[in-house]
Amino acid sequence: MTPATGAPLLEIANLHASVEGKEILRGIDLVVNAGEVHAIMGPNGSGKSTLAQVLAGHPAYAVTEGSIRYQGKDLLEMDPEERAREGVFLAFQYPVAIRGITNAYFLRSALNAVRKHRGLPELDPLEFLDLLADKLRSIDSDDSLMNRPVNDGFSGGEKKRNEILQMAVLEPTLAVLDETDSGLDIDALRTVAGAVDKLRRPHNATIVVTHYQRILNYITPDHVHVLSGGRIVLSGGKELALELEARGYDWVQAEASV
Amino acid sequence: MSAERVTQPAAAVERYVAQFEAFAANGAGAAPAWLRQTRAAAIERFGVLGFPTTRQEDWRFTSVTPLMETPFVPAPAGGPVGTPASFGGGPRLEFVNGRFSAERSTVAGLPTGIRAGSLADALRGDDAALIEQHLTRHAGFAESAFTALNTAFIRDGAFVHVPRGGALQDPLHLVFRSAPGRAPAVAHNRILVIVDAEARATIVEHYLGGDGPYWTNQVTELVVGDGARVELVRLQQEGAGAYHVASLHTNQGRDSELKVHPLVFGAALARHDITSVLEGPGAELLLNGLYLLGGHQHSDHHTVIDHAQPDCRSHEYFNGVLDDRSRGVFNGRIIVRPGAQRTDSKQTNHNLVLSEDARADSQPQLEIYADDVKCTHGATLGPLDPKELFYLQSRGIAPAEARALLVYGFGAEIVGRLQHSGLRSRLEGLLHERLAAGWAA
Q: What is the complex's ipTM, to 2 decimals?
């Protein structure tokens, strides 16, 4: 199936989702076009992370209503690994440690799964190391984490940097960053956000899920959406993020509940 | 309980006492007087102890009843065996049914001054005095029926001596094979390794055998001198019907470094006791084990790390992967003696339980009699973590491959700690093969 020309990269319509029977998302509508950066902001518990997890296909979240079309296809019909192979990438808020598997081995397994799906030859360890060296350079990183088990004993900053490295290697079409800024000091934030900015391409799009405005100093959004009570209650340009920073979320929630 | 069950253990003990009498009258006469006396004391002790029962604390989870009820005969000499083990080249000593096989062994290229050969030969040679100093001195048999039985039947095995400053650069392989015979047989193998001060050695113990029931009753004594560095890999790949009962006794001098990697793949019933004494200040010990079990396999590790002196470090990691109806037992005791200040001790036991019928038991035991120490321990058991599976899937990896990767990681975490890179990559290959063979599907 080829994507319909001119169709948005991602089209979310009236999305409802629940976890353990509790409805978290209550009718999300969102359109993301190639080349755009969208920021999804909102207070704790507003459903930001749920939206990110639903996009990646986390089995704990049940979609009860609505649709998600990605490149013209029904995203909800795809298993998590299919979504990844089709170019959807979630940078986790809490990256998971995998004992005994080195980062390099993991990255190569993931890349080869994606390449196989795209009809490209799989890379052997040496070919992969060449590619990895390029990717590390492209995001100003080094190979210090490569021979350590995935996220095992990594600092908060190392984990987030590692997510972005995976993103660089897998070259997603739609990247969703789930609170990538949380727990980072200002230097780590600058490094991680700078790397994301370097990965922007005209054909891909990024959704930045965040509580705070500060990451948006490094990744300039085209659109900012405020999520509250499982709905997008306000959308605007990048200046909306600054306003939220200055005024907090209460006024938006107050207006939304009117 | 029937009368038959009551008399059974006594009959089993009698069987081995009778075998000892035949052995002492026959094949054991050439041994030095001290050893004959030790053997006699050992069989007497075995007679008093008898086989352990699950009523004893150290054997609560492991029943040796099937072993006790099998009438094992002493393993006969020779017997048909397969091709030499292919696990690595380099110097090797090979033993078939507990006896040294010169034609299957090669010690070409060993540096001069290093001894590696048959214990039976060494007992009659220039090293007799050195052997007398160490053999049976580290592996006490007062409380262990199996060690007592092994000691009573000491005849052959491996003797390795690396003199002061010497280096056994390439791994020395000690291969123990059981050849199938007409009746279930038992071999009582013995290993004595002495690594003198400032010397280095890498040694692999490798156990192999056929499919039928047989019993390997094995004891290793390892002496690590001041400032010496030793790495010992123990690869247990016994046949599916085998009973493997073994103990390792290590003694470390000042500022020495010892890495032990017990890797359990085979046998129906495996029991391995490790007793490590950190006898010199500043000594460092790594006990790094893996058991990968399926079917009805049962594996039990009992370890004792004895911090007898200050400023020693011990790191103990055991991972278990348990499928089907298998069972893994880990009991890790750490003793910090009075005065063993600044002890740094860490213990973990992680079990991946892949089947509802598999079972893992984990028991840490810390006995701390010094006040300035750092001791941590932790144990986990459970199935594959859905969070880990989803993380891998979200990167494009299919569920079946993700599961295989996570299982591999459990083993690779242990194998990755091998210092010798050649052995490490061969064992990683072995792990891959083992999992690809559908063992944990």
A: 0.95
